[in-house]
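TL;DR need structure tokens for one chain.
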Amino acid sequence: MVALCAATVAVGISSPQAWSAPGDGGLVADFPRLGLEQVGADSTLAFYGSQGVTSITLPVPPGLVPSELTAVAELPVNLGSGTLTVTQGNRTLSRVVLPNVDRLPITIPLDGVAVEDNAVTLTLRTYLSPIAGYCLDPTNPLRLTDAGIVYSGSENPPKAIADFLPPILQRINLFVSPTPTRAESDAAIRLATAVVAHYGKQNTAVTVSPLGQGETAPPQPSQPMERNVVIREDPDAGISLVGDVGVPALIISGPASELTNQSRLMSSGLSRLALSSKAVVGPLRSSPQLAADNTTMRQLGQPGVNATALSPQVSIALDQTRLGRPAHDIRIHLQGSYTPLPPTIGGQLIAAIGGEVIDRWPADSSGSINRWVNIPDRLLQRYTNLGVALNISGDTGRCGEFQPITLTIDGDSAIQSALSIPPVPGGFQALPQAFMPRVQVGIGDSFDDTRRAVSILVGLQRLSALPIETAVKSVPEAISSEGPAVLVAADGWTDSSITLPVATNTSGELTVQNVDGSGAEGKLTLDPGSPFGSLQTMFDGKRTLLIATSNNAPDQLDGLLIWLDSDVEHWSRLNGNALIEAPGRPPMQLSTDVAAAPEGPSQNRTALYLGIGAGVVALVVVGAGLIVLRSRRPQG
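>> reply
TL;DR here they are.
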């Protein structure tokens, strides 16, 4: 069993570093070394061909300056020599000769780098030459792995509310009453999801802890690149910094009717104007934006994509969370260009998803692209990558001396879609887009339910490119509402109006819905019974629900949430419509709906296996299946 008094929603701890502690306040970073993934960039940089290029943007906390890039160089086959340069604008910051031995660490100085608006943008270029008589493999790039950034200097502690949230935030620690009010729970969830949405790929960790009896401030100072926040219902409305030395804590307080407005300050543009140690916020209206049927790649965050190679290919991210709703009937009007081919070279353009070609057409001498491509609903996932490639045939020379081809898809390419009811796909892949633009959060009055709700909503927010708007209610109120809802019932599910896909009780009986897709139930009685924790999602005919519950085993549910929080990929890899954990067994992903996910060669929809305790009891239910972990969020 797992007992929790605080929730850790993600892991974002930096590698060992030297830190300084100014006075009794929170600690500041002193000459930190961070992996690129900790600052929201990819930890592996790839450079294809004889001349490769990539750009990275690095956040820089006030008081710090980037001094070095570090990495391990993985050399391509047949490399004779190579040079890497780093430029900022028109200035060359560094030029490094690559090692001639594979997987050697390299250090790239950044002397003279200029910081602007707490960030730097660097361009890295590689110039590679093959061994005499050999060719570089165009599919085998130079890779810089385990890349990191070393900063010099000491972080400046914030002096005003506008500076409280730094450019790099590894963890935010929220403190609430051990018996939080609904307003305190609502503010904690809103602040947690807003912070995660703001920092994105930094994967900022979130913890929720109860204040001790009589405490009004955090019991411990914050660690480097962390922040402490107290959320308290109080007659005195406002946001204030507490602590004169080091990194102060932030206190968000106000009566129930005002507390939400105060917490919204940290996620609104007004935080830039809070240039004092205390600020009081007037009404801030949240107006979720309704999704449009017509948009463009640019409006969805892709200003355009291009590639230069002998057979160039690009990837277009169709992200339903950016569309802001569950969508289907998606069409994209591909507009762009490619280098015109000479008469001696043939070519065709191919559009594919997951290796399956969905459209192809011949390349011609015009070099223009103007074609509508329909995305089959059966291939849709939360994130669907549409690949567009130009394949050529003909004599391209010994080492591909034929001129490289540039393939470009313009950011103004139109994308059309329609609201999907029910969502396509269903199950966990429908989340969080099925919760947009607003989701009800039904919880009890306990601190533990607030902690569980924060864990779930932070996990969902990590999947989304857009902020998720939430509203906390009681569980009965959320059930009776018409909108989508997250429901936390840790002790057990008792509402007979909603039937769970996989129901368990304390007597050991399991009930699985929709056996063989017929709508019939399958039952199994376990002797002895076993505790279960589960996270299950369903579409009830008008809305999507996500229910966190157990068979009177809340610790088992907590263990399941800990597993989800232990790796940022766990949420994105969920498929099916039920995630269940039993003691001594890893969590199991199940599907009780044959329409929940397209069938694949790795899926078996004829058997549902539940591991119970130290042994394994096999429950055969025709029509349900063991779901294979897959579907990662696209990079970029």
